[in-house]
Specification:
Layout lengths: L23 E3 L3 E3 L57 H10 L2 E4 L4 E4 L2 H7 L5 E2 L7 H6 L5 H19 L5 E2 H6 L2 H10 L6 H5 L2 H7 L5 H17 L2 H7 L4 H14 L5 E6 L3 E3 L2 E3 L4 E5 H4 L30 H20 L4 E2 L7 E2 L5 E2 L3 E3 L3
Parallel strand pairs: 4-10
Antiparallel strand pairs: 1-2, 3-4, 5-7, 6-14, 7-10, 8-9, 11-14, 12-13
Helix pairs in contact: 4-6, 4-13, 6-8, 9-11, 9-13, 11-13
Length: 376
């Protein structure tokens, strides 16, 4: 079965009905997942046939629409669910940013925003409702008596235990053998869940006891960590720069990875009022798909946006808000101590010969494997 959805009418589900990497299209063409960040509300109905849709011309859902045609550009906006998007969404994102900053997508059944300025505003503007990121204001009200140093200690201990388990192997997959276990193991240690019960309990009530509304962030943190390690290990110069780097530089590299390869690619909000954005006005009561992955590579905001550069002077990321949240703290600790533990246990750690990380996924996205040689 192909993992690439096919274009159809505005009421069709993409072929196969299940995007890769755990994302799914549920009945009614709603995108959903078990994580509170990526759980998406019901989509608004498609606009009536013949209704004008800003930035989009003669689409499958509105064949009689008569919007503007960009000079020398396309007449139909691409969809983030188009065939090939799972393997390489960046060309689609580029076209949307440049030619269709506001468009209605019949597969998502939502208005689509792709530019950094619009996506960043929508994630914090009170006129966009239904959902929040870890680190957004609701988090600060949900968490009390969190011992930050205890979280740091259990993260460090868990990372070193996992690193030592794979240090003597001739070859290992850091996604399966490390990234899959560190976020769950950290929460397990923090709440006192026995190791043998870790995966069963930590993904449910035990995680919620620590992280409140953001308890389901474990799966997102796994993907974020896999992308981070992939970005670092893909470049020997980055390995050298970050091997013994101070916490501040590791934090900058972590922020840079979240910008370039965010684990959550698409978030959906609903408008409580009309909202002006690039390319037009979104009506009240509409579902809006925010292309976080596109926003992070917007050249209007970031120089050389496709390049992983921990030293950039224009940093920024949209995966997490700026407020207090255990899920955000843990994600940062996991990135820092993952590097320290892996390079301490395996000083010559490198990617296996001929292997390059390949990210896949539509709603959430990360490398499916990171094949490494622990002994160099």
């Amino acid at each position: 079965m192909s993992d690439e959805p096919k274009r159809g009418t505005g009421n069709d589900l993409p072929s196969g009905g299940r995007p890769p990497s755990g994302d799914r299209l549920s009945p009614g063409n709603r995108l959903s997942s078990g994580d509170p960040w990526t759980r998406l509300p019901s989509m608004a109905p498609a606009p009536p046939a013949g209704a004008a849709v800003p930035g989009r011309v003669r689409t499958l859902a509105d064949p009689a629409a008569a919007g503007p045609v960009p000079p020398g550009g396309r007449t139909v906006a691409p969809s983030p669910l188009d065939p090939g998007a799972s393997r390489d969404p960046h060309g689609i994102h580029r076209t949307l940013r440049e030619e269709f900053p506001l468009t209605y997508d019949p597969l998502l059944r939502a208005w689509v925003l792709s530019r950094y300025a619009d996506v960043a505003a929508a994630l914090t503007d009170a006129r966009f409702t239904h959902g929040h990121r870890p680190g957004d204001p609701p988090c600060a009200r949900a968490h009390v008596d969190v011992d930050i140093e205890a979280l740091r200690a259990v993260t460090e201990r868990t990372a070193y235990v996992l690193a030592r388990r794979i240090a003597e192997r001739p070859q290992a997959d850091l996604v399966a053998d490390f990234c899959h276990w560190l976020p769950a193991g950290t929460v397990a240690a923090a709440v006192g869940v026995p190791y043998r019960d870790m995966m069963r309990l930590v993904r449910g009530r035990a995680a919620g006891a620590l992280a409140g509304e953001c308890g389901g962030q474990i799966a997102v943190r796994e993907k974020a960590l896999a992308s981070f390690l992939g970005n670092v290990l893909a470049d020997p110069d980055q390995v050298a720069a970050l091997r013994d780097a101070p916490a501040g530089l590791v934090s900058r590299a972590w922020t840079e990875s979240l910008r370039r390869d965010p684990p959550v690619q698409i978030a959906v909000r609903r408008t409580a009022a009309e909202v002006p954005v690039s390319g037009g006005v979104i009506p009240a009561g509409a579902s809006v798909a925010l292309l976080v992955g596109s926003a992070g590579r917007d050249p209007e905001r970031f120089r050389e946006p496709d390049r992983f550069d921990p030293f950039r002077n224009d940093p920024g990321q949209l995966t997490y808000g700026s407020g207090f949240c255990p899920a955000v703290l843990l994600a940062g600790f996991e990135a820092e101590y993952a590097l320290r533990a892996l390079f301490t246990a395996m000083p010559r750690l490198r990617l296996a010969d001929g292997f390059r990380p390949v990210s896949t996924g539509l709603i959430t996205r990360a490398p499916r494997s990171l094949i490494v040689r622990p002994g160099g």
